Amino acid sequence: MQGDREDKRMGKTLIEKILSDHTAVELDDRRRLIYVDRIFLHERTGSIALQSLHESGRTVARPKQVFCTMDHIVDTFPGRGDETLMPSGTQFIRATREAARQAGITLFDVRDEKQGIAHVVAAEQGIALPGLTMVCPDSHTCTLGGLGCLAWGIGSTEAEHALATRTLELRTAKTMRVTFDGELCPGVTAKDMILHLIAHYGANGGAGYVVEFAGSAIRALEVEQRMTLCNMAVEFSAVTGLVAPDDKTIDYVRGRPYAPRGEQWKQAVNYWQTLRSDSDAVFDREIRINARGIAPSVSWGINPEQTIAIDERIPSPDGGSERQTYMQRALDYMALEAGAPLAGTPIDAVFIGSCTNSRLSDLRAVAAFLEGKKVAPGIDAVCVPGSTQVKRAAEAEGIHIILKAAGFEWRESGCSMCFYAGGETFGAGKRVLSTTNRNFQNRQGPGVRTHIASPLTVAASAVAGVISDPREVSSMPAIRENHR
Ligand SMILES: CC(C)[C@H](C(=O)O)[C@@H](O)C(=O)O
Ligand code: SF4
Question: Aconitase/3-isopropylmalate dehydratase large subunit alpha/beta/alpha domain: which residues (predicted)?
Answer without folding.
Answer: 16-465
